[in-house]
Design brief:
Elements lengths: L3 H18 L15 H13 E2 L2 E2 L1 H14 L7 H4 L2 H4 L7 H13 L4 H15 L9 E2 L20 H9 L5 H8 L23 H8 L7 H8 L4 H7 L3 H16 L9 E2 L1 H8 L2 H4 L8 H8 L12 H16 L15
Antiparallel strand pairs: 1-2, 3-4
Helix pairs in contact: 1-13, 2-7, 3-7, 6-7, 7-14, 9-13
The protein binds 2-acetamido-2-deoxy-beta-D-glucopyranose (NAG) (3 copies).
The site of one 2-acetamido-2-deoxy-beta-D-glucopyranose has 3 residues, from helix 8.
Length: about 350
């Protein structure tokens, strides 16, 4: 369920974001109610994204894919439709999820751009303690590739990332909050970016700051100790609620890059229903205890457990991309990337 505080944050975010995208001259043409197909897509993804009561590596890939579709230019599905997934080294570990989501977009008759953002929201909500983020439907697909060399590398410094993100309308807090997705991040070899990698929590921030994180990215260390970002790093990382309060609007901003929010249909209720476990309560997913976990903890979709399906993929990729490729895999680099 979305708490009142989240509601007010979403509202605040919409006030802040809308002016830069709104086109008052253009008549708003959108569906007033969320198409029911999204509930079907959610239950379909659940079996792939939840295992042992937390998010799988497929979910981690989906979260990362949302960043890769949007950040280079626009959330337009081009990461799949213009073959950026197969043609660009930084997407090499997401070829599988690209194929999966491309097929599902066709079979459910939804836009590829939408299903990428939807899968990220469902992926986040699939993690133990994962927050409910917004989801808007109605993006237009494009098979024209977005510009290259827009994604920051795994050892990018804070100054460089700030310039990259501010050029796209993100605040320092947004940048720091988005980096927090590494709370469920794994390196290519499967090693964790924080000691509770199966749980979406703010411990990531304190562990990177104090050096106790098992395997931190250089870029995250830089955000934590640069004078330009360390204040935000501390405040966002104060608690799981401060993390969530910063992450949810930042993720919404990301998911709307290049799109006019006023022309989209608010389908956020599908995400909150998913997180609340109503789908599993209806018996949509067999053998899952997501529902009972979520009932007890509000937005939490699942409880901590581990998933090991990344290892074979990690091994397969590790040799050909070398040390930098270590940080390319899964949500570890949802937001901070190798650019080959
Ligand atoms: C797919 O959706 C579009 C609208 O987005 C609609 O025009 C079309 O008829 C749908 N196709 C099928 C097979 O339902
Ligand atoms: C930060 O990174 C940029 C881009 O790689 C580089 O030009 C700059 O010298 C770096 N700054 C510091 C302080 O290392
Ligand atoms: C930040 O941490 C890195 C890695 O430990 C270190 O090399 C760098 O000197 C630190 N920078 C500051 C400003 O403390």
């Amino acid at each position: 369920m979305i708490s009142p505080s989240i509601h007010s944050i979403l509202t605040f975010a919409s006030i802040c974001i809308a002016p830069s995208f709104a086109s008052p001259e253009v008549a708003v043409k959108r569906q007033s109610t969320c198409p029911s197909v999204w509930t079907d897509v959610a239950s379909d993804l659940q079996s792939t994204f939840v295992s042992d009561s937390t998010c799988t590596d497929a979910a981690r890939q989906a979260i990362r894919l949302a960043f890769h579709d949007c950040f280079p230019g626009s959330c337009d599905g081009s990461v799949i439709l213009a073959n950026e997934c197969t043609d660009r080294g930084e997407n090499a570990q997401m070829v599988d999820i690209c194929g999966t989501l491309g097929e599902k977009a066709t079979s459910f008759n939804v836009s590829t751009a939408d299903i990428i953002q939807f899968a990220a929201a469902i992926g986040i909500a699939s993690c133990s303690n994962g927050p409910v983020t917004s989801f808007y439907a109605g993006r237009t697909d494009s098979s024209t590739a977005n510009p290259e060399n827009q994604l920051p590398g795994p050892n990018a410094n804070a100054t460089f990332m700030l310039s990259l993100f501010s050029a796209k309308g993100f605040s320092t807090t947004d940048l720091v909050a988005l980096a927090g997705a590494h709370t469920i991040g794994k390196q290519l070899d499967g090693s964790a970016m924080d000691s509770t990698v199966d749980k979406w929590d703010s411990g990531f921030y304190t562990e990177v700051s104090d050096g106790s994180a098992p395997d931190a990215l250089g870029s995250d260390t830089s955000l934590s100790n640069s004078s330009e970002t360390s204040g935000e790093w501390s405040s966002v990382g104060t608690s799981s609620s401060s993390f969530e309060n910063a992450f949810v609007p930042a993720m919404e901003k990301l998911s709307l890059l290049g799109n006019d929010k006023d022309a989209l249909t608010d389908c956020s209720d599908v995400i909150s229903s998913y997180a609340a476990g109503t789908l599993s309560q209806k018996g949509v997913v067999e053998g899952s205890d997501v529902g009972s976990e979520a009932q007890g903890s509000g937005t939490t979709a699942a409880a901590a457990a581990s998933s090991s399906e990344s290892v074979s993929e990690a091994t397969r990729r590790g040799g050909s991309f070398g040390e930098l490729a270590l940080v390319v895999f899964v949500a570890s680099t949802v937001f901070l990337e190798l650019v080959l």
